């Protein structure tokens, strides 16, 4: 008898997992993707959208059509409640039953944690969707058009997606220098990390010093161990009383996993992230797998201010392949793979140059660590985006690279 596999989410984790399952399982097994989005967005390129260096159409792809062409059913819906005891989830449009569930729903943004935070009801901008990036682009251009001011980039307490504000601060510096306006603007960056480049994992060797030197050369003011108190139309204020003039601010909030998973004993932690064993299956509900941001991953070390562990697109896709393999192993028999042997490849772009790093494993002590700065890293990031989007559109082989 065929099994019903339900995949929640259609970004890096959901798309790759559904495609991987379809390759591994026969047509007697049904694979259904339920996602709030019919369009895939290459999220790592959203900082370029903010800068006006990339058109949104270049980094989006109609994922629903692609999945259906592969033999995967697609339903656009937003999941509001999981019911793992009865192998069911509920969306706004109805219920969905399953034999195996893959949670790849990504994150929900916790703007309400800090007064005045966020683009909708607050006074700062964000960068996790095309709509947010376009709103930030318009506001940034408006701030620059005034000819001078204070531009603020920050990570709040509990934030885990820490790299975009580094990229934005450096890219704005690059753009202002190109326009010969850099001397008229102050650029500031604050972060919840205990050091620049800590990134929630204890850092990557000399990358912290590389970033300190880079910021010094670019005259970017920085502050670590930061807790944000509030954002007003005029100021960004930290809990220790530091105030930045708010001509433009782009601030990354902490994440929730999903409210749909909350309040279910054994399924999720209090913030809606799903714990998993080494094979990415939930310890209590072994037919529930989780990949990417949905995975509960505790910080490796305590920090003065809470810092989350990031899950990059590359890490998410690797987890998705492991989850697909392990579900197939559950159904057909065979050895399972470990899903938490994380490696990471990341490129932090600055517009005119970039910092490349790769680490194996993600957490120290490591077997291998590589970090380099140069224009070549910038061109690598551009080339990978173009190839990745081409692989989606034209069915080219995927690259085991990163961003």
Topology:
Layout: E1 4-8, H1 12-24, E2 30-35, E3 40-41, H2 46-51, E4 60-61, H3 63-69, E5 73-76, E6 79-83, E7 88-91, E8 94-97, E9 100-103, E10 108-109, H4 130-145, E11 149-155, H5 163-178, E12 185-190, H6 207-218, E13 220-223, E14 228-231, E15 235-238, E16 243-245, E17 248-252, E18 255-256, E19 288-290, H7 313-332, E20 344-349, E21 354-360, E22 368-374, H8 375-394
Parallel strand pairs: 1-2, 1-9, 2-5, 9-19, 11-12, 11-17, 12-13
Antiparallel strand pairs: 3-4, 6-7, 7-8, 10-18, 14-15, 15-16, 20-21, 21-22
Helix pairs in contact: 1-7
General description of the model:
The chain has about 400 residues and is of the alpha/beta class. The chain has three domains: about 180 residues, FAD/NAD(P)-binding domain; about 140 residues, FAD/NAD(P)-binding domain (3-Layer(bba) Sandwich); about 60 residues, no CATH class. The chain is built from eight helices and 22 strands. The strands form seven sheets. A five-stranded parallel beta sheet has the order 5-2-1-9-19, with helices on one face. β11, α5 and β12 form a beta-alpha-beta unit. α1 runs parallel beside α7. The protein is globular and about 70 Å long. About 45% of the residues are buried. The mean pLDDT is about 95.
Series of H and E elements = EHEEHEHEEEEEEHEHEHEEEEEEEHEEEH
Number of strands: 22
Structural class: alpha/beta
User: Can you list the strand order of the major beta sheet?
Assistant: 5-2-1-9-19
Unreliable sequence segments? none
Mean of pLDDT: 96
- Give the radius of gyration: 21 Å
The structural domain count equals 3
- Fraction of residues in helix: 25-40%
